[in-house]
Amino acid sequence: VTTRLLFFGSLREKAGGAERIVEIPRGVDTIASLVDWIAADDDMLKAALLAPLVRVAVDQEIMVDRKEPLRPAEEVAFMPPFSGG
Amino acid sequence: MVRAGHIKVRIADAPFDPHAEARSFAKTFGGAGAIVTFLGQMRDEGGSVEALSLEHYPGFTEERIQKAAADACHRWPLDGALIIHRIGRLTPGEPIVFVAAASAQRRAAFDAVDFLMDYLKCDAPFWKQEVSEAGRRWIEPRAEDYENKARWKASSETAES
After folding, report:
1. What residues contact residue B12 under an 8 Å CB cut-off, 6+ apart?
2. Which chain A residues touch B122 with a CB distance below 8 Å?
3. What is the pTM of this model?
4. How far apart are CA A58 and CA A80, in angstroms?
């Protein structure tokens, strides 16, 4: 499955772009393991993506538990704290 | 309870006229006894900030705000609600956010607007960057914003789990 990874706000700068199109390999089956895979050679990005206030949405649904099974998804978004208004 | 068609959410990528919006909202809900509107505009911070840059998550942001507005309609007897939020580059004095609520009762309209603003401040997917001479800085909600939000008890509509 081809998945679009989206990085918003400050995470876009840390990830070096707003979007990455990837083929998530077999075995990457939680948010936690997805982050390990995305940031395998970038400890700063890894820490930023795992920061407690970062929200993750899978196909536009927020996932609270990083260890919950990750189903095949078209879109996974990493969102730093919101600041509207 | 309000019908979904009476909740409007708009993400604006260009300046909008809050006064025209307020007039048209009051006309649409001409039978409501109370209309409350709120306008948030970009502070000038004594001239130190040149601009704000706001981004959102297209589709997701609109859907989340729509849910919060539906939640407001469950909490208070509203006839309708309108939320307009800017994205893109803004300069001091420009409207950022406009929220309006119509109800038979003024307290319901005041509370709904207050609730929706607290929601928009820390729970709506927007990211805000401040541009000044010193460079660019991402803005995060202040402790005060989270405290304001906590005044409203959670409900199933806006809970994230």
Report:
1. B84, B85, B86, B87
2. 81-84
3. 0.91
4. 15
Distance from CA of A81 to the nearest CA of B (A): 6
* Residues comprising chain A, all counted: 85
Helix, strand, coil in percent for chain A, rounding step 5: 25, 30, 45
Closest chain A residue by Cα to residue B136: A10
Of the candidates B63, B120, B160, the beta carbon closest to that of A84 is on B120
Is the ipTM of this structure higher than 0.85? yes
pLDDT digits (tens, 9 = 90+) for A61-84: 999 888 989 988 999 999 999 999
Work out the pLDDT band at B148, boundaries 50, 70, 90: confident
> Is B57 close to A77, i.e. CB distance below 8 A?
yes
Minimum CA–CA partner of B161 in chain A? A64
One DSSP character per residue, B1-61 reads ---GGGEEEEEESS---HHHHHHHHHHHTTT-SEEEEEEEE---GGGTEEEEEEEE-TTHH
Q: How far is B87 from chain A (nearest CA, A)?
A: 10
